Amino acid sequence: MMDLDFSVIPANSELLWEGIKMTFLLTGLAIVGGIILGTFLALLRIAKVPVLAQVAAAYVNFFRSLPLILVIFWLYFLVPLIVGQPVNAFTSVLVAFILFEAAYYSEIIRAGINSVSTGQLAAARAIGMTYPQAMRYVVLPQAFRAMTPILLTQAIILFQDTSLVYVVGLRDFLVSAEIVANRDQRLVEMFLFAAVVYFVLCFTASLGVKRLQRRFAK
Amino acid sequence: MPGEGFLVWVRLIAESALNYNWDWGILFRDPYAGWILDGLGWTIVISLLAWVIAFTLGSILGVFRTTSSPVLRAIGTCYVELFRNIPILVQLFLWYFVFPELLPEDWGRWVKRDMPAPAMTTAIVALGLYTASRVCEQVRSGIEAVGVGQRQAGRAIGMTEPQVYRYILLPNAYRIIIPPLTSEFLTIFKQSSLALTIGVVELTAMTRQIEEYTFQGFEAFTAATIVYSLVTFTVMMIMRVVDKRTALPGTFSHGAT
């Protein structure tokens, strides 16, 4: 056993705080981007748009068969090549997360839309709404309500997944903790601290989701 | 104008494709072809061994969570909540960097250096223990899906609780949860790439290494992408057949999705 010294945490609170802000920023933007692209993919498949529906299905199956780390490496390599100049790691990582998460969100959203009764769509069309209007004002609001708990659970998973930016060294919470750990030779304290922080945040959030689920079930 | 923005992207992508030095032959040349195969081998070894741990422990915990004993149920719940709410990468670091330090000195040294393939063994254990929490939830939902009537019927004809699990609940539950268990196995297969963070050179790490040595990132990452997709689709096809063959009469079984 070694002696533990947790004073290294308050001593580096500023760096760690910057890291946690980066983790939340990345999670937030990836959720918004992932849901937008995921909704778009799901709608292409639900509306059975010729060709594009098949492309959307292939997209989803393709990304779901790949490790997130590989997708992060891909975009870290591709984005600067396409833009033609070096870009910061944040941009390529964010693109990677949006493209990757959209595949998972699209499956959740598709299930949500399918759970809305087809009578709703028919009724909306019958009172003269166009197909996009019926989707926008009648089907999607009900679908999003039905799938809110699952979307939030996926958000918690995404929050945990952002720790993988470690592989390109973007300074999120885990990388900040690791920098302190190596610099001050306090690996045990810093990794235990990181685990506790992630656990408290994710556990609290999942309790919240469970309560929401129970309220929706009534 | 969204249309214009799209055209700008197409032009940028076309330009970068023209400026890039294509060399697909690199994938078939020595030593790179061998690296990719080696990487795939380690990826498969890690995935299979981690799956043995995840499946065994996950099944035990799944039984715990559905038994009549409140103590066993509490153990199962605590395990799942603990392992599910810490990112797998953090868990990997805990096992690799923290766990040996908390042991008595001799044991710690053994875990860090003297046990066979320390980094890979740690990755297998960490992945297995993490996925056990997910397998546990699938087994639990499978047992719940079999229904309380089966359990009561088993007890009524004089079976003990272990017998009810052994002969009635588990055989039925496994047949119901083949599709989600397939997804969990594929998740382990993909997450085995995390082992590269502690220095295990599996498939993703190998392709990264090829990129660093040759600057042919496009070809290297394409190779990894194809290999991961092929393995995933093969496993899904096989499990779809298995699921159909073992389907419980009167249930919906469509194979893994």
What does it look like?
The complex is a heterodimer of chains A (218) and B (257). By secondary structure, chain A is mainly alpha-helical. Chain A is built from nine helices and no strands. The longest helix of chain A is centred in the first third of the chain and has 34 residues, at 13-46. Chain B is mainly alpha-helical and 257 residues long. Chain B has one domain: MetI-like (MetI-like fold, Orthogonal Bundle). Chain B is built from eleven helices and no strands. Chain B has helices at residues 2-19, 32-66, 70-84, 88-102, 105-114, 118-146, 148-156, 161-176, 178-191, 203-214, 217-245. Classes of the chains: A mainly alpha (218), B mainly alpha (257).
Task: Please outline what is shown here.
The complex is a heterodimer of chains A (218) and B (257). Chain A is mainly α and 218 residues long.
Judging by the overall fold, what is the CATH architecture of chain B?
Answer: Orthogonal Bundle
What oligomerization state is this entry in? heterodimer
What spatial form of chain B do the alpha-carbon principal axes imply? globular
CATH homologous superfamily assignment of chain A: MetI-like
CATH class of chain B: Mainly Alpha
Number of domains of chain A: 1
How much strand of chain B? under 5%
Mean pLDDT of chain A: 92
Q: In CATH's first tier, which class of chain A applies?
A: Mainly Alpha
Question: Could you say which structural class the secondary elements and strand pairing of chain A correspond to?
Answer: mainly alpha
CATH topology of chain A: MetI-like fold
Shape call of chain A: globular
Query: Can you tell me the CATH superfamily of chain B?
Result: MetI-like
Helix percent of chain B reads: over 70%
Major sheet of chain B, described briefly?
none
Number of helices of chain A: 9
Q: Rounded to an integer, what's the Rg of chain B over CA atoms?
A: 23 Å
Write down the CATH topology of chain B: MetI-like fold
The largest β sheet of chain A comes out as: none
How do the helices and strands follow one another from N- to C-terminus of chain A?
HHHHHHHHH
